[in-house]
Design a protein that fits this description.
The protein is an alpha/beta fold. Helices cover about 40% and strands about 20% of the residues. It has 6 helices and 6 strands; from the N terminus they run αβαβαβαβββαα. Strands 1-5-6-4-2-3 form a 6-stranded mixed sheet. The model has no long low-confidence stretch (mean pLDDT about 90).
Length: about 200
Amino acid sequence: MKLSFLKDVPLKVPYTEANAVGQIVSRLSLMIDELSAGRPIVIVCVGTDRSTGDSLGPLIGTTLSKYQSPHFSLYGTLEEPVHAMNLEETLHQINRTYHKPFVIGIDACLGQVASIGSIHVGTGPVRPGAGVNKELPPVGDIHITGIVNVGGFMEYFVLQNTRLHLVMKMADIIASSLFSSIMNSIHVSARSREQAAALEQPHSN
């Protein structure tokens, strides 16, 4: 699958689909392999635990933080959320700390009734606040979003009255898929380096 195709057709998969994790891992692994190019991976999980629907990002961040992985840096957890008030400064801090970081932006969003529970993976940034008519900086070289409820009216009220069960199920799937994808990419890179090193070794007679 070519990258140009990925740009045109983002992955959209319901969290209830039997092989949802497999589909997400497959797409994310390909995107990370082709786009990150050895850059430091930084995950930014946008949202706040003050709103059930908007807690998707911090729940994912908290789950990922438990892996304590050295292979990515993480911003946005239940304890230290990244939200409208600190998003811009967080992005500045990331760009000061890392050289050409490969940023994965994660956020909840609102959509059509038929799309509730769908997980989207695509290239380009996520645009936090768009669902509630806020102007916030875009986040990410690629993005992962979860449609947690219906959009178009009374967005703050809708986010507050989103089922926690739905948000937690989606958060578990996204977190496990993303971690598996990063580990896959690390292993692929290590094998590539080993193969390159082997080719450079002088052949014995």
